[in-house]
């Protein structure tokens, strides 16, 4: 069947502004891909182009090898949640789904099945104007799943969810991927992406920075190894002479950025160096994200 999603050389210009610039990435079936980038990086523009809501200036964005507008059965192919979904405030959650189901040729039994799946069965009869943001997110997920699609495109699905809801979403997305579905999820909740995604695509200013399996990305950007002790400075000199990257870490400690613990240990043993600590420096996905995009934490 090929890639579930394939974006090739995608560009989108709004007047003088180039929102997406020659962007390429792919999403495989059975994988959850985190789509990451600072505000204004072009994530939502890319998703809207993928779903046929806007026309690309150049390049292609396809689902199962076709543009969205050419899909023979769009509801059975791809489900999407953008901007938290749109609901008539006077309509119940159940009736909202029933309206969408009839437009897609889906029976009411599927509506009740999905309300239970997203844990809204008890609230299905309530008007959506009384729903919390998290409940609206779950209703949007139910709407995206009406046609039992093989591909899901989700823009900030964790927005408004409490910790319990975020954990539910994590397990829910994992179960969908385990069934062989492809999930592309844009999110600002980097700690949650680190626990959920198989792969990540990082973009900045409309351009691709990196696409890689999450474990590979974290390994490539490991924080280094911290060494402390009375001979740390002498060890640093020896490692620098051998071409290693070494920085001071306050007091009698250094951080070695490009040598394994085993390699450092051999230098220590060969030179009878006394140390009190040799430990890896943990690096979070958030740290790697800021490093890749050249941004800092703070309001955006």
UniProtKB/TrEMBL annotation:
Keyword annotations for this protein, in alphabetical order, are: ATP-binding, Nucleotide-binding, Transport
Its name, as the record gives it, is: ABC transporter related protein
Cell membrane keyword on record: no
Gene3D superfamilies, alphabetized: P-loop containing nucleotide triphosphate hydrolases
What molecular function terms (GO) are annotated for this protein?
A: ATP binding; ATP hydrolysis activity
Superkingdom, taxonomy of origin: Bacteria
Q: Which SUPFAM superfamilies match?
A: P-loop containing nucleoside triphosphate hydrolases
Q: Which residues form the signal peptide?
A: none
Q: Which organism encodes this protein?
A: Conexibacter woesei (strain DSM 14684 / CCUG 47730 / CIP 108061 / JCM 11494 / NBRC 100937 / ID131577)
The family note in this entry says: Belongs to the ABC transporter superfamily.
PROSITE patterns named among the record's database cross-references: ABC_TRANSPORTER_1, ABC_TRANSPORTER_2
Domain spans labelled ABC transporter: 5-230
